[in-house]
Structure formats: C-alpha cells, structure tokens
Design a protein that fits this description.
heterodimer; A: about 425 residues; alpha/beta; Aspartate Aminotransferase, domain 1; Aspartate Aminotransferase, domain 2; 2 domains; four-stranded antiparallel β-sheet; 17 strands; globular; B: about 150 residues; alpha+beta; Sufe protein. Chain: A; three-stranded antiparallel β-sheet; 6 helices; about 20% strand
Chain lengths: ~425, ~150
C-alpha cells in the first residue's frame, strides 16, 4: 500500500556541497575549466563509498559465489546475495524477484529471449502461456530508447507476432486515447519507458498498465531514467518486469537488474544457459534452478553487484523523495532557462509541466554536435546525438539534439553556467545574425 | 573564447558551413550525359550526419561535384571545401589530396598541413586534435572516394 506522506523537502545547497565532496571526479577540470557534469542520464559519477565497496570486495572477499566449500566463497556469496536484497528493497521487490544482468539492455533482452524460447516450445507446460505467434501483437511506444525497441522488433521477427506503436504528440506526450485502440485483444506484451531519456516525460504507468491488464498483456517497464531519480516501488506500479542499469545510479558499469514478478520468473524458460543455473545435468538434457538463479548463468558480476548495493545505500540514505524534489527544481530551471533563449526549442513538456531533471533541445541553425563541442570548451559535459532514440527524433523532425541531464550532485550554479554558455552558441556559429 | 575551440572552428570552416559550395541535386540527369558519373551515400551512425555526393568525370578529370547532406558544421564545411578543391583535378591529383587530408586527420595534431595540395582544406588541421570529430571531416571525402570508384566501374 502506498504510504501517504507530507511532500518532502529538496536537498539544500549545503547538502549538495557535501554530496559533491563524495564524488572525486566532480572536482576535476574539463578543458581548463571546472567540470560541469550534465550527462548523468548517460552515465552517473561514483561516490568514493561505491568504489571502496568494490575494492574492499576484491581485497577481502573475492571468490566464486554459490560454490566451493571454503569460507571465502561463503563470504562472497553473502556479499552478492546481500546486494540483491538491497536492490530489491530499494524498489519494493523481494530478493528472488531480482535478476542481476550486465545492464538494462541485457535485462530487456532476457525477457524477450525467454518469451522467444517459450514460443519455441521450451520450458514445458508452465511456459506455454508465454508463447507468442502470428496473430499476437507486441506494443511499444514511439518514444522508446533503442534498448526497449529492438529486442521487441527481434522477438516479433522470430515469433511472427506484430509490433505496434503508441504514438506521441508534438510535445512528446503519449497519445493515450490512441493507446486504448493500439492495445487490443491480440496484445500479449506492452513495453514502455517510465521516464523518457530524451523528453524527460514521466509516463502514466497506471493508465497504461490498466489498458494492458484489461487484455491480459504482460507489462515491461524501462526504468533506466526513473529508478535512479525517483522513488520507484514495483508493487505500487503493478508492472510485470522492470529493467534498470547500475551505472546510471551511482554504481559501476557492467551491472544492471531485471525485476520480474515471481510467478512469471518461475514459469519462464532461461535465456542464457550454462553453469550455476542447473539442478541435474545429463549429456542429453538439464533441469534448471528456480529464479533468480535460473537466469544467472555462469560466474556473475559479483564485485559490481556489491558496488551497486553500496550505491543503492547511498541513494536510500540521501532519500529518493528528496533527490526527486531537488532534480525537479534543477529540471524546471533548465527548461525555463532554455525556453527564454532565442532559437532554442526544448523537446518534451513545457516549463511548469512534470518532467525529470533533464532537457533535450534543438538550437536553430546549429547542429547538436557543434553545440556539444562549444559547451565542452566551456567545461560543460552534455550528450549530443539521437540518444539511442532515432524514431523519436524523426517523429519530432530532427536527427539529433543536445541533452543536459542532472543528478543529486548538480547545483543551480551549474545549471546557470550551462544556460549562459548555451546563450552564446548561436552567435559563435553565426546563426543568430 | 578558448583558442582550442577556435583552432577547430576556423573562420573558413564556419563560412563554408553556411555557404556550402556544391550543395544541390545529385541525380545523374543534372550533369551532361557524356560524362562518367558515380554516387556515394555516407552516414555517420554515431551522430547521424549524412552526405550523398555525386561526381562527374571527363576522361580522368573531375568536372563537377554535387552533394546533399545534413550534419554538423565540420561535416558540411568539409563537403563544401572539398567541392571547391577537387573540381578540375585529375583523378590522381584528387587521390593525392585525399591521402594528404586523411594523413592530416589521423595525425592528432602532429602534421603540418600542406597548403599547396590542400588549399582551404588545410583549415581542418585543428580537427585532428579532436578525435571524436575526425569522422565528421572525413565523411564527404570517403563519399568522394567511393563516388569516383563507382564512376570508373
């Protein structure tokens, strides 16, 4: 049950200063200027505690997990499983519902390939309800990151199912009235992003889940831009699968997670197969462990999982509700500041509308790559390009955009420095004459 | 303003990015029927920059270059400068220009441009110190090389 609580207060400037001291990279320079890091939507920086957790694991506990009679193996296993518990409780799940993957892309592919295997008849009677075929449809949105689009294109191609799309309007909001007709009795799976990595839009999960529920479709949530930035509770969201990446939430690269509703994970066939995920193996066949082990073949990313556990602790101790509030302030400052600059078109919701702390924009007469280069010379790191969302950019009439994305460690001064630099871009490139 | 940035965005480059010599229709019928012609389309998947470039050759001389594209100032200026530079060159001269330009781009700032051979394309020397932008400068040159090969087939 969601707990009703008073609106939380954002981080204070003093707290953000203290937080910044935990991140060594943030006090470095970029091209001779103090670094202004506004690319956390692509990858976040790491606090010392996370880096130390990984190092400590290697110095004191390193061993293969779930095997070996020695005490070191027991300690390594405990550290790995403790990380799973931390990640689970961070999003309101049970530990056995968390599968560690290398990133969100692998998590989404895991679901797609498991369904694909079920469609081939693997996984026996229990997996049969997960089989897709001709006449079935898979629904995604026009705003998806390629990681939550291409695995479903491939699944459709392998099974003969049809891929359908919920369109977005000119402001980048999902057209819910059309969603109600795109999702119909043929729909077996609905995959959508919680928060758009380009638009910053926070999608109406409850409405979409309700449409999927009505027709008995599975729901898959790409939470790469929400789990790091907003309080996320999978029980409240009531989705079947959630994918997210560790490196976007203060953790290291190489680790991500899939949340899967327990009854689905129990029924679905494995994706990757091999060691550590089996019970009995003969030369001809194998039987598999229950989840999550069934989906974790081979030696796992133990040190990265441990470090992700540390990252989750850092976020939970800071308070996700307060991080959300702080980034709401930064995001609003970004958007209202950008909208006030001539020749700038902000993608996604207007100022005053809900969004996460990021803003992608087009600069009239200047290509995004040149905008990014100019900002880089001022010490400001942003993302340029299509942000792995080509179809969305095409829908908005663009091939590329520039994106500034914030996190708990960014300051209002940094946002202002960014806005001041953006205001100079068009005159530098002779576009404002 | 940082001098690094100005070494990248030389005024010649900014001017060509706006003026865009040679930008226009690239269909074969826009040139004389008697000329050999070839076209190439190049895409940089990292940033989405695109160039479609067509050449017309008489014997082994480049009579005309036309191109269409969308992209950053570096890639558009490079297509424009290249059009001015190679128009009228023989195929061998063009290959020499291409080789020198490629060598310059791969030099990470260690090679002085040969202005005799490269003309205005020497202004791209600063790009070589920005490895992420070298592909932008090379895009139209790669298209040119392929288009000439196609014309000679």
């Amino acid at each position: 049950m969601p707990i009703l609580s008073a609106p939380s207060h954002p981080l204070s400037d003093d707290e953000v200063s203290r937080i910044r001291n935990d991140f060594p990279l943030l006090s470095t320079e970029l091209n001779g200027r103090p670094l202004v890091y506004l690319d956390s939507g692509a990858t976040s920086q790491n606090p010392v505690s996370v880096m130390e957790a990984e190092q400590e694991y290697y110095e004191q506990r390193n061993a293969a997990v779930h095997r070996g009679a020695h005490s070191l193996a027991v300690e390594a296993t405990d550290a790995y499983e403790n990380a799973r518990t931390l990640v689970a409780s961070f999003i309101g799940a049970s530990p056995e519902e968390i599968v560690f993957t290398s990133n969100a892309t692998e998590a989404l592919n895991l679901v797609a390939y498991s369904l694909s295997n079920a469609s081939l008849g693997l996984g026996g009677e229990a997996a049969r309800p997960y089989a897709l075929g001709p006449g079935d449809s898979i629904v995604v949105t026009e705003m998806e990151h390629h990681a939550n689009l291409i695995p479903w294109q491939e699944l459709a191609a392998r099974t003969g199912a049809t891929l359908r799309f919920i369109p977005v309007d000119d402001d980048g909001a999902l057209r819910l009235e059309e969603a109600a007709s795109v999702i119909d009795g043929s729909t077996r799976l609905l995959a959508f992003t919680h928060a758009s990595n380009v638009l910053g839009t926070i999608n109406p999960v409850a409405e979409l889940v309700s449409l999927a529920r009505k027709v008995g479709a599975l729901t898959v949530l790409d939470a790469c831009q929400s789990v790091p930035h907003l309080p996320v509770n999978v029980a409240d969201l009531d989705v079947d699968f959630v994918a997210f990446s560790g490196h976007k939430m203060l953790g290291p690269t190489g680790i991500g997670a899939l949340y899967g509703r327990s009854k689905h994970l129990h029924a679905m066939p494995p994706f990757l197969t091999g060691g550590s995920m089996i019970t009995t193996v003969t030369l001809e066949r194998a039987e598999y462990l229950p989840p999550p082990a069934r989906f974790e073949a081979g030696t796992q990313r133990i040190s990265q999982a441990v470090a992700l556990g540390s990252a989750v602790n850092y976020l939970a101790e800071t308070g996700m509700d307060r991080i959300e509030e702080w980034e709401r302030i930064l995001g609003e400052r970004l958007v209202s500041g950008l909208e006030a600059i001539e020749g700038i078109r902000v993608l996604g919701p207007r100022a005053g509308q809900p969004r996460i702390g990021l803003a992608a924009f087009d600069v009239d007469g200047v290509h995004a790559h040149d905008v990014g280069q100019y900002l880089d010379s001022r010490g400001i790191a942003v993302r340029v390009g299509h942000h792995c969302a080509q179809p969305l950019h095409r829908r908005l009439g663009l091939t590329a955009s520039t994106r500034a994305s914030t996190y708990l460690y960014n300051t209002t001064d940094e946002v202002d420095a960014f806005l001041a630099a953006v205001a100079e871009v068009r005159s530098f490139f002779g576009a404002s004459a | 303003m940082s001098s690094e940035l100005e070494s990248l965005y030389q005024q010649i480059i900014l001017d060509h990015a706006k003026r865009r010599v040679g930008q226009g229709p690239t269909d074969p019928s826009s040139g004389a029927d008697s000329l050999a012609t070839g076209e190439s389309h190049q895409l940089n998947p990292i940033c989405g920059d695109e160039v479609t470039l067509r050449v017309w050759l008489e014997d082994s001389r480049i009579e005309r270059v036309a191109w269409q594209g969308a992209g950053c100032a570096i890639s558009m200026a490079s297509a424009s400068v290249l059009t001015e530079l190679v128009s009228g060159s023989t195929r061998d001269e063009m290959m020499e220009q291409l080789d020198r330009f490629r060598e310059l781009m791969r030099s990470r700032g260690t090679v002085e441009p040969d202005e005799e051979v490269l003309g205005d394309a020497a202004a791209f020397a600063g790009v070589s110190r920005f490895p992420a932008r070298v592909k932008c400068a090379m895009l139209a040159w790669v298209a040119l090389e392929e288009a000439v090969l196609a014309a000679n087939r």
